[in-house]
Amino acid sequence: MKTNHVKTLRDYDAAAVMPAFKKLLSVASINQAAAKNQKRFYRRIFTPLVLLWCLIYQRLSKDHTQDEVIVHVKSGAADHLSPDPATPISQRIKSESTAAYSKGRLRFPLAVLKTAIADTAKSVQQTMPSWHGHPVALLDGTIFIVRPTEELTEEYGTQSNQHGTNYWIQIRGVGTFCLQSGVMTAFAEASIKTSEQELSVKTIAENGPGTVLVGDINFGVFSVVQAARHQEEEVVFRLSPARAKKIAGCALRPDDDLIVVWTPSRQDQLNEGMSTEPIQGRVLCCRLQCKGFRPKKIFLFTTLLEQAIYTVDELFQLYGRRLHVELNLRYVKEQLEMGELTSKSPDSVRKDLYSGFLAYNLIRACMAEAAAEEKTSPLKLSFTRCWRRLRPELIKLRATDSPEFIAEVFRRLFLRLRKCKLPERKIQRLEPRAVRTRPRPYPVLKGDRKKARKQYIQKLKTQAARKS
Fold this sequence. Notes:
Layout: E1 6-8, H1 27-37, E2 40-42, H2 48-60, H3 66-74, H4 89-92, H5 99-107, H6 110-125, E3 136-146, H7 150-156, E4 160-161, E5 164-165, E6 169-178, E7 184-191, H8 196-206, E8 212-215, H9 222-230, E9 234-239, H10 241-248, E10 257-262, E11 279-288, E12 296-302, H11 312-320, H12 323-335, E13 340-341, H13 346-374, H14 383-396, H15 403-418, H16 449-467
Parallel strand pairs: 3-8, 3-13, 8-9
Antiparallel strand pairs: 1-2, 3-6, 4-5, 6-7, 9-12, 10-11, 11-12
């Protein structure tokens, strides 16, 4: 019967994708996430197990195209993932087309990738030291761009200014990263018209109770603190000078540490289904002095009320480490090349994002294990240098390799990763957030390409008519 050829995702062991995942992924939770989708998979070449690996490989490879995945699978590198060893995947694929893999991506549940990211983050966080018994999550937002296909334009909309409609479609994303290890713990995306504060509410819900959230001035608003309280989490957010003065009820001086009650105003946007009661907390003020610059006041709001435990100096030092979240987002967009995505549908874009974050967490997990053997922080290791050494090793490992061989590969690999330390600079570098543009022989294309093509054809016809 046909039902004999039907399997659910629960029949596949996601941990067999690669040996490194055996320590990181909770197969039970992934199977549970897949069962919630109630999807059934016929026996195809691209089974859920093969698809999970191909999504990760597509981001780890230098060429992130689907055609590169087909080349990888036909080479026999994924034969050990075949449900039937007698007929390897490389022999079953007859075509060079990417259609089968593309359709398999569409069938693959996005919830499985989200669950895998949460599991890898949880596995790494359990090995990291806490901050006064709290896990710390750094909160920040960024923008990804995609090309304006019809589906993406309908899903995310377009952006316009005084110069006209922007060609690129912008996707706003907000994520949280573990302070100690750098792994991503939660992520949410939406149209650029959606605020970071609104998206942060979704990411906050995915972090566990007791987590301390650290965010910049953009998140120092009542709605974000309200969401954190609803999830039983703590916050350390920077405030604007005007909001700090309003909450404190007076002008703040350096080293001030005031117990306050934050009452929402009429202008504050509130979250539905959450308590609107005032929030008790502390407003802190610190005067920063950097040689060669004018002194500057920094204001923080925190719901950590114990002044003897959470001192002013410790809280400002904690906020100072918020810079790591911007570095993490830079690694995701630059090293993993996720700043510009090439997918043409919203579902494919989301799977590209989450599979990229899963690959990023895999790299961070290996860095954390290497740093643990050195008894140092994984943040002292260079992500870029570790990524260059990890990628070829992770791609070539197979689940059928002997445990002794895998252990020896990782032993040598971790020895190399421990040496990839960041330089200890005595002088802090201050660089402007600007890039140099390279000279181009052709002008910049603005507006719609179809209109530009018609104008160019008309120009050629005019030139030909003049010559005749």
